[in-house]
Amino acid sequence: xxxxxxxxxxxxxxxxxxxxxxxxAELQVSGLxxxxxxxxxxxxxxxxxxVGDIKTDLNxxxxxxxxxxxxxxxxxxxxxxxxxxxxxxxxxxxTFNFNxxxxxxxxxxxxxxxxxxxxxANKPLTGxxxxxxxxxxxxxxxxxxxYAGQTPDGFKAGKLYRIVI
Amino acid sequence: xxxxxFIALLLLSGAIxxxxxELYVNTEPASNMATRSLGIRLENQGFDKNDxxxxxxxxxxxxxxxxxxxHTTFYASNYYQPGQRFEGISxxxxxxxxxxxxxxxxxxxxIFAKVASISNPLNNQEITLEGDNSGIQGGVVFTQLLHKVxxxxxxxxxxxxxxxxxxxxxxxxxxDEVFYTLSxxxxxxxxxxxxxxxxxxxxxxxxLGKTNPGYGQSYLDAAPAVQFIFNSVFRVDVSYRAPLYxxxxxxxxxxxxxxxxxxxFNVF
Lengths: 165, 268
Prior knowledge:
The complex is a heterodimer. By secondary structure, chain A is α+β, with helices and mostly antiparallel strands.
């Protein structure tokens, strides 16, 4: 029984540490100026099951999101919630822990999604690193258009995030 | 008339250092409410011409998607008889077709439509779907927000039906009306946002105009307004509209407006 408990515990911890690769994100929302609008956006973000806490800078329209270690993080859902609140993501900078991540040339996989490092992959990727998503829905068009053509070798299907280190 | 418009435009734009908001009191901006949020408005408008008359309305607003929001409003007044009476309902939908966002600024465009079913005698020349007429309305609105500056312009067309209760539109009345608005908002407080509990104070200046084409009937009202927002969810609006010029028989001349609005986020 005791060994079973340890087995369950290790499963939970194992799962937890696997999800914990994304720890936090700094989200800047564009189009916002009223505190009512910020509140609506924050309340929408809080409905996401992987969002732990949010600290908001109302002057800079920045939401600092702490992720729960127990649920996989879906960056696409963050963009969707912001858009549904009536606004756009200007910048999303997420902290990702590269320990125990195997990079396949310039891309890696996280919960079925593919992340491609389009700029800055020459730096050593260990420990927590801030990555900025440069896809449509996460950056102004002048930014995402610059990287939209890049696709990792052998990429077939699924969600692809292009990131800059 | 041109002179009045010019003076009004000066007041709206140049003369005051414009810092603004787009939660207009007498018009709707091109922006929508957040998806799955519900707003409830309780409003009272009125005037004192020989008798004090007032109308109360209850409005429910819902953000259906990022581009679509819908309103339903119920009206009651003593405008057409000595006592208060339920007059009818209206429904409104607004579809945002354009949104260009960057940090603390945006440009948005939306189309909107409204339909009203009202039971009241028809003795005014103005067509309004806010409790006076049964009819339909369509229009377009553009809103530009530059940090704290917000400007909005809208225009459109109204068509009056006969009112419910066998109230026919008099033969000499126009069934068609054109409307146009120009709004500016100014954020007075807070100067620096710290948290959601700070009281926001916004000032607005709006121009509200209507014309009955071919009837020589038109007006242009100036409608200043002040707005308080508490706890980022509860809004109090106070406004008064007065004509810059008036060649139209109507109820809306020299009216006050008092509105309470509460917003619920992430419902349904």
